[in-house]
Design a protein that fits this description.
By secondary structure, the protein is mainly alpha-helical. The chain contains nine helices and no strands. The longest helix is centred in the C-terminal third of the chain and has 30 residues. The two termini are 25 Å apart.
Length: 149
């Protein structure tokens, strides 16, 4: 699926710089090209327990950039290439980068909030332990707010 992603991106129009950089970063992390950032998913996935009880705040930033398998990466990055191209051309690279940073942290915080609210409502501890990775939360929020499609 990674080769398919690269082939799809090579066939498409030129990607703006921030979109291209985020795509490259996601692929590089998935392929474990950075020696210092080869983490098991269980150490970067986002969960309410790891954030609220263990104070592992970096998960808020890292979890969107890691993917469960190559198809997860493929679908997220194909979607991101379309939405990123549209938004970056519309708002410019600098503001698009700011949007990505804000939405990355906001989506992670939102996920933790939903997990915690589910725990409070249903009184089940396993709701605090679920773990999530991937960039799709950011993509969906961007698409909804800016009405890309």
């Amino acid at each position: 699926a990674v080769f398919l992603l690269i082939a799809e991106l090579l066939r498409s129009d030129r990607l703006p710089p921030v979109t291209l950089a985020f795509l490259a970063l996601n692929v590089a992390l998935y392929l474990e090209l950075f020696e210092d950032f080869n983490f098991p998913l269980s150490t970067v996935c986002i969960s309410a327990y790891s954030i609220l009880n263990q104070k592992q705040w970096l998960r808020l930033i890292f979890s969107p950039f890691f993917h469960g398998d190559d198809w997860h990466l493929y679908y997220n990055m194909i979607s991101f290439s379309v939405k990123g191209r549209s938004l970056e051309q519309r708002y410019g690279s600098f503001y698009f980068l700011i949007l990505l940073i804000v939405f990355t942290i906001s989506c992670s915080l939102g996920y933790v909030g939903i997990e915690y609210a589910s725990y409070l409502f249903f009184k089940r501890h396993n709701f605090l332990d679920s773990c999530a990775v991937g960039f799709s939360g950011n993509l969906n929020l961007l698409a909804i707010i800016f009405k890309i499609f």
